[in-house]
Automatic annotation (TrEMBL):
Residues 311-320, 342-352 have a biased composition (Low complexity). The chain crosses the membrane at residues 12-38, 44-61, 130-148, 154-172, 231-256, 268-292. This is Thiol reductant ABC exporter subunit CydC. PROSITE patterns: ABC_TM1F (PS50929), ABC_TRANSPORTER_1 (PS00211), ABC_TRANSPORTER_2 (PS50893). Residues 311-352 are annotated as: Disordered. The keyword Electron transport does not apply. SUPFAM superfamilies: ABC transporter transmembrane region, P-loop containing nucleoside triphosphate hydrolases.
Length: 595
């Protein structure tokens, strides 16, 4: 996390120096005030006090100015570092697409609360200790110059209050810090699940249990936060106790020295008030140390996201570099994306052509069954093929590979002469588009959702795409037409309307290869058949790959692949497969077995 701030190291150094000046000015102001009051009690000439009066004013001004500069510089650097950290997290999410690997509410907590830990570390965890080190050394030097035993006692007190107590507070705060971060993530997860799943929870009478889960998570977070606050209070109390004991010890040593004639009364006042001021220097340190546990836990959760292995490699040697021990991928010191090998060079642009998959093997974790196990597939330019099979046979995994949502563990996918794995994912997606099994609709207007595929599309082009999927009449009947807001996740649309809107968006992308994963989900039979007819007509000269469990209209496909257990077990035209014994003919005879 400190490495994230390295580009702004000079700003933090300036902030530490400004903080040291502010703290030293405060301590010096108290020490000088002690000298001025004690000296004035002896009724000297006013000229003897003029210099001290001017210095008092100067220290008062410099304390405020330096403190302002310290806050301005360190917070500016910390907030810029925090912005960089968030950008890196967002970029990593976009690059490796691990969003589904984390619970939604927990991921929000990582992006917000845990990323804020960077700011806590830089503002409260680094600057105060370094400023205290510089100022504390100056206070000890002044006290030692006045009275050696007093200086030694002050040094011992500052070490105990500024080092020992924070170390104990950090050790005691490590476990609560981990629990605090976890409890915050659990509360966020429970709350998001309850909000997003409210209709189903109400329908099944489970809302009370969901609310109880939220209440339990909130109670746990409150309990951990209360313990954390108690730890902060304990650290502050221990620091105050050590400060008081050191002050009394300094006073006793000073009085004894005055009685012995080795210290004058005026330096005694300076010595005592310097000791009092010195403990204001270390007062923030126990609280900062106690927070390090939470900062460490937040940082670990943040880097869990940054270190998630990519599902899609970069081009030509862009795979993440793993540690020799097989640990997490190593990113740049500043937490950036994996570094690509310069030797690989930029791959040549992808030219449209035949889509060919050979020996595709994919599984989601070591030791799990293969979702795809040696699958072969051919799609010629302008061709139309369908992939069918029972649920869990690997159809959607095939779509994920073609959409470049993940890389195959073995095998190749070529478009023309280009191996898609050796090219940037976005370059492949520009040529292979379509609709995944669960398309996402964004909170916004109908037009805004459509223009995700083609930002410069005109209204006429949007209406044409809607007409192709038979959604134009429904959208025209909306209060504001294309400008009508569809709600979060398209909540104001029915399931069928959401599906057709996603299909219209795919047609607008105008990629030469169109992959449709279960495009007729949520559609009634009449609309399903009509939409399929329109899609086949609208595909034009595009290559079309239809992944479906629905056997309607498959007679219009050039080739049908039957996939079972991740392998192609049958291949042929609709008529050929009906003529042969196997899954396809059995599925037609027993519709109840479809999917």
């Amino acid at each position: 996390m400190i490495a994230l701030a390295r580009p702004r190291g000079s700003r933090f150094v300036l902030g530490v120096l400004a903080g040291a000046v502010a703290t030293a000015s405060g301590a010096g102001l108290l020490s000088l005030a002690a000298w001025l009051i004690a000296t004035a009690a002896t009724h000297p000439a006013i000229t003897a006090l003029s210099t001290a009066i001017v210095l008092t004013r100067a220290l008062g001004v410099s304390r405020g100015v330096a403190r302002y500069l310290e806050r301005l510089v360190t917070h500016d650097a910390a907030l810029r570092t925090l912005a960089d950290a968030r950008v890196r997290v967002y970029a990593r999410l976009a690059e490796i697409e691990p969003i589904r690997r984390f619970r939604s509410g927990d991921l929000v907590s990582r992006l917000v609360s845990d990323t804020d830990a960077t700011q806590d570390l830089l503002v409260r965890g680094l600057t105060p200790p370094l400023s205290a080190l510089l100022t504390g050394a100056g206070a000890v030097a002044l006290s030692t110059a006045l009275l050696v035993p007093g200086g030694l006692l002050l040094a011992a007190g500052l070490l105990l209050a500024g080092v020992a107590v924070p170390l104990v507070a950090a050790a005691l705060g490590r476990a609560p810090g981990r629990r605090l971060a976890a409890a915050r993530g659990e509360l966020s997860t429970a709350l998001v699940d309850a909000l997003h799943g409210a209709p189903d929870l109400v329908a099944y009478g489970a809302m009370d249990r969901a609310v109880h889960r939220v209440e339990q998570a909130d109670a746990e977070l409150t309990r951990v936060a209360r313990r954390d606050a108690g730890l902060l209070g304990l650290g502050a109390g221990a620091s105050a106790l050590l400060g008081g004991l050191t002050l009394w010890g300094t006073l006793l040593l000073g009085v004894a020295a005055v009685e012995a004639g080795t210290l004058r009364p005026i330096p005694l006042a300076v010595l005592v008030l310097t000791a009092l001021a010195a403990f204001e220097i270390v007062a923030p340190l126990p609280a900062a140390a106690a927070r390090l546990g939470a900062v460490r836990a937040g940082g670990a959760r943040l880097f869990d996201v940054l270190d998630t292995p990519p599902a899609v490699r970069g081009p030509a040697g862009g795979a993440p570099q793993h540690s020799p021990a097989g640990g997490a991928p190593q990113h740049s010191p500043a937490g950036g994306a994996p570094q690509h090998s310069p030797a690989g060079g930029a791959p040549a642009p992808i030219e449209p052509g035949a889509l060919r998959a050979r020996g595709l093997r994919v599984r989601y974790a070591p030791g799990e069954p293969w979702a795809l196990d040696g699958l072969d597939l051919d799609l010629e330019p302008g061709g139309r093929i369908a992939v069918v099979g029972p649920s869990g046979s690997g159809k959607s995994t095939l779509a994920a590979v073609l959409f470049r949502f993940r890389d195959p563990d073995a095998g190749t996918v070529h478009l023309g002469d280009a191996d898609l794995v050796e090219h940037p994912a976005d370059a492949a997606r520009a040529l292979i588009s379509g609709v995944p099994q669960h398309p996402h609709l964004f909170a916004g207007s109908v037009g805004a959702n459509l223009r995700l595929a083609r930002p410069g599309a005109s209204d006429a082009e949007l209406w044409d795409a809607l007409t192709r999927v038979r959604l134009d009449t429904a959208v025209a009947a909306l209060p504001r037409g294309l400008d009508t807001d569809i709600g979060t996740h398209g909540a104001r649309f029915s399931g069928g309307m959401r599906q057709r809107l996603a299909l219209a968006r795919a047609l607008l992308a105008d990629a030469p290869v169109l992959v449709l994963d279960e495009p007729t989900t949520h559609l009634d039979p009449d609309t399903r058949d009509a939409v399929l007819d329109d899609l086949l007509a609208a595909a034009g000269d595009r290559a079309l790959l239809l992944i479906t469990h629905d056997l309607a209209r498959l007679d219009r496909m050039d080739t049908i692949y039957v996939v079972v257990g991740g392998r192609v077990v049958q291949r042929g035209s609709h008529a050929d497969l009906l003529a042969r014994d196997g899954w396809y003919r059995n599925a037609h005879r027993l519709p109840a077995l479809h999917g």
